[in-house]
Predict the structure of Ribosomal RNA large subunit methyltransferase H.
Amino acid sequence: MNISIIAVGKIKEKYIKDGIDEFKKRISRYCRIEIIEVPDEKAPENISIKEEEQIKEKEGQLILRNIKDNTYVVALDLKGKELTSEELSDFIKNLGLKGNSNVAFVIGGSLGLSKEVLNRADFRLCFSKMTFPHQLMRLILLEQVYRGFRIMMGEPYHK
Ligand SMILES: C[S@@+](CC[C@H](N)C(=O)[O-])C[C@H]1O[C@@H](n2cnc3c(N)ncnc32)[C@H](O)[C@@H]1O
């Protein structure tokens, strides 16, 4: 399986970068994993809803350009469905069993994902009702994907 994480914005904090590199390395024992970073648009304070939509749309176009037709897309979305770690593990396993060899997880920027990206998504995944900053979200996602593979393989991992 090829897993890509398509994320808006750079990782600025070193401790998050280090964590991301560590989990990317760990996941690479189970599948091919790549991270595609698309640039974020500047979003000044006090912009209108219309301007916010335009920013999300621009970022969304860059995201969509990086998604191939045959890719199963999981959008990280606060309004999506919450799964347990075991359910996420089964979810990834079933994608593989159903022949989905390309899976992309998409993380939005500070304003979230455009409706075009959400419409392209095959599944919307919510990590909790709390909003996480996009940099941390990337690290949390990688840890949960790693945890998912460990569960799938019946390998021990901290509870
Ligand atoms: C700072 S959040 C954006 C918040 C924005 N107000 C929204 O409603 O989407 C940046 C990105 O991180 C992801 N994200 C943050 N918290 C999340 C959560 N609890 N569940 C799923 N995705 C989350 C989403 O992809 C979101 O677009």
